[in-house]
Amino acid sequence: MSKKNDFSSLDLISAYTEKKKNPSRIDLSNIFVNPNQPRVFNREEVQDLVDSMDRLGLIEPILLRKDKNKYIVVAGERRFRAASKLGWKDIPAIVTDANEEICYEMALAENEKRKNLNPWEVGRSIAYLRKEKKKTAEEVAALLGYTERYVKQLSSIARLDQKAVFDMIRTGTQVTVKSLEAVLKRKEGRGETISPQKKTNNVKVTLDLSVLPSKTRENFIKDLNTLKKKYGIQV
Predict the structure, then answer these.
(1) 100 belongs to the catalytic site
(2) How far apart are CA 83 and CA 205, in angstroms?
(3) What does the mean pLDDT of the chain come to?
(4) Residue 150 half-sphere exposure, CB side, CA atoms within 13 Å?
(5) Separation of alpha carbons 90 and 101, rounded Å
(6) Which pTM does this prediction carry?
(7) Which of 26, 186, 187, 194 is deepest in the core (most CB within 10 A)?
């Protein structure tokens, strides 16, 4: 197995367990979604939550980061969108003082914990942390409870463009690490067998040089000998 069992390093989220008992109420007008959040697909498909929250209310508060005079969603974007559709004025929320980088890690960990992301989305987030935030594979592995090898494997999948993954989803192809790697190999021309060329039959050509003037014949033979040496032509 490439993954560790459960998520051994999710203290980023569990540290806020106590705060969930007394969340703040934040006006929806002051809340904004994070354009760089790990989730890419199905972010706006919230009808299931709209129906549930209409009947039961919000069971778990969302997590926000304060940014000047506004709040950025760290975890719970779909709950926030559902509340907006329901016409709520405010929403129970926990406001963290963690910096932007830690909040991104929290959002990734929370989404992975809930299995809300497909492998490409996870890989894209890992690639972002490694390239933009200079995280090592070991550090990301500790965050998600993965092995370093699996982190590198997911990171390589992120080379696929979003359209390729969307096409897989649209056609009903299961988006797994294996299927994503297969698409990536095809796009990069790796792992393909090149068919051997068919053997061509030798063609024999007969030339009658006696009809040529002597000087022309000598030049022709001289040029032909040069071609024989250069290209291995058999005469």
Answers:
(1) no
(2) 84
(3) 82
(4) 15
(5) 26
(6) 0.65
(7) 26
Report the candidate in 105, 114, 130 with the shortest Cα–Cα distance to residue 38. Answer: 105
Distance of CA 46 to the CA centre of its chain: 23
CB atoms within 10 A of CB 206: 4
Residue tagged 């709950």 (tokens):
79
Strands 62-67 and 90-96 turn out to be parallel
Instruction: Determine contact, residues 72/34, Cβ cutoff 8 Å.
Output: yes
Calculate the CA 220 to chain-centre distance: 62
pLDDT of residue 7: 40
pLDDT for position 191? 60
**Residue 6: per-residue pLDDT:** 41
Q: State the amino acid at position 228 in one-letter form.
A: K
Tokens 């980061």 belong to residue: 65
pLDDT for position 216: 78
> One of 18, 60, 77, 138 is an active-site residue; which one?
77
Which residue positions in the chain have pLDDT lower than 50? Answer: 1, 4-11, 192-199
Amino acid letter, 88: W
For residues 60 and 71, give the distance between their C-alpha atoms in angstroms, rounded to a whole number: 18
Which residue in 172, 174, 184, 181 sits closest to 150, CA to CA? 181
Distance, CA of 69 to CA of 41 (rounded, Å): 29
Q: How far apart are CA 127 and CA 104, in angstroms?
A: 13
